[in-house]
Amino acid sequence: MIDKTISGGTTMANNITKKWWHDKVAYQIYPKSFYDSNGDGIGDLPGIISKLDYLKDLGIDIIWLSPCYCSPLADEGYDISDYYNIDPRFGTMEDMERLLDEAKKRDMYILMDLVVNHCSDEHEWFRKACEDPDGKYGSFFYLRDKKEGELPTNWRSYFGGPVWDDLPGTNKQYLHVFHKKQPDLNWENPELREEVYKNINWWLDKGLGGFRIDAIINIKKALPLRSYEPDRDDGLCNIHAMLKDAKGIGEFLGEMRDRTFKKYDAFSVGEVFNEKPEEIPDFIGENGYFSSMFDFNEAVFGSSEKGWYDAKAIAPDDYKRCCFESQAKIGGVGFLSNIIENHDEPRGVSRYIPEGECCTQSKKLLAALNFMLRGLPFIYQGQEIGMENVPFSSIDEIDDISTLDEYQVALRAGLSPDEAFKAVAKYSRDNARTPMQWSDGANAGFTTGTPWLKVNPNFVSINAAAQMDDQDSVRSFYKKLIALRKDNKYKETIVYGVLEPIWEDRHNLMAYYRKGDKTLLVIGNYQMEEQTVTLPSPYKCILLNNYSNLTKNEHMLTLQAYQVLILEM
Length: 569
Known about the structure:
There is one protein chain. This protein is an alpha/beta fold. Helix content is 28%, strand content 17%. It has helices at 45-50, 52-58, 93-105, 124-131, 190-206, 240-245, 249-264, 280-284, 316-330, 348-352, 360-371, 401-412, 417-425, 430-433, 464-467, 474-486, 491-496, and strands at residues 26-29, 62-65, 69-70, 82-86, 109-114, 143-145, 155-156, 164-166, 172-175, 210-213, 237-238, 267-270, 292-294, 335-338, 376-380, 498-502, 509-515, 519-525, 531-534, 541-545, 551-553, 556-559, 564-568. The strands form 6 sheets. The chain has an 8-stranded parallel β-barrel with strand order 1-2-5-10-12-13-14-15. Helix 5 (190-206) packs parallel to helix 7 and helix 12 crosses helix 13 (417-425). The two termini are 41 Å apart.
């Protein structure tokens, strides 16, 4: 096992006990698109192993792998058919064990995705449920008798359409809040929970540092199951209507924590949505269900119940407000995991930087504003080099099932095919799933074969090789941010210090203090036009600046387009 000790082990004034993971930096890998070692067009575990030194050089401590378990890949691996084995497309269990070993040599931790709201319809449990729906494995799922012309409930799945489908070979239907090939597991069944805990502990025994926990809020259903008021012409309602009514998820999550993560001092980060302020201590407090949870406040901004076509674009002032709201909500209770993007979101620089203003400096600004927030920073593969959304030309180029469904939603709403495509393409998950851009060579250096998903054509100018030795590159800026977070002089403040916004009402200006044993001021001019600010007091030194110069007159600073500063006050 990797040593997880942290010097001091003390409890902070705000009752936060120091943990081994607090000062770490995490990096998410989408294995299918990271690096292909054998030329089959699909990224794999040996490919990840070959890039560990690249990540170590960047300063990464924790690596989260999106699913690489056995799967039919109906939802790109989030439909698991065998929790105990690696999908041959990604490698072997020996490859996984070698990855764990090589990571340990570099003092790095590996997280895997924990996907236990549902499994695949090709999992042994589901096959046995089809054979005997009234037997042991039938109770591992939500099954209901089929009624002609009537569904058990009118919930809409996350991927569109009803959540109920016919159970093959039976007169019953099964529940799936995601894809029809992802039947929901019945967490009300203690036998099912035992199987889940057994699997978690099996992986932790292998040396995992912990898990990212997928879609976990969905494990608790509002019982008895019932329909809700429809919110679209299809007669169905958003699944969140039911989740708002669901009570008692804490019993499941607390049990899982005590039976698994707690025993191993494992790191766990939950994909949590719609939590209430009063629930924060339960989720990530001193004895929370999870070590941390992701901040999705910015990611869900502007969403519409009507669909992606009706979503509102996020402006710099919106982004600022979302960040500060999340920080205020958490306070000193626990630690958020802060993201700009992940495998389920479009590229952050294409989403949070106004159209036409995406450039090296604006990418660095976004990086610094996010990275210096209180919490654990997560970098998604390619984010560190400023990868952007893909200029898809047709819906036929899209692989993502969410995008394909939202395209149909837009068509039904009356948009033309061209309008519908443009409306959904910018939010497509495929934007983040195109192959990692390693070089300006064939297929961006990702594979010697044919990549499973087209490479973004901008790889010629945006790639890791071109940025490695360029001190002005986006990657070098991320490396500096990581080094600053780990600097013993400033680490206590950056990791544990409070966050205090300043100049909140200033248009397209995002600024905040980080206060601990030092006082740091982060200032970002979130626009193309210059802005002038007057500091409340003199600064001691500039810790980071995405420009080579700074225009100043005593306490007055003039910030250039998308200039960001980190100052010691």
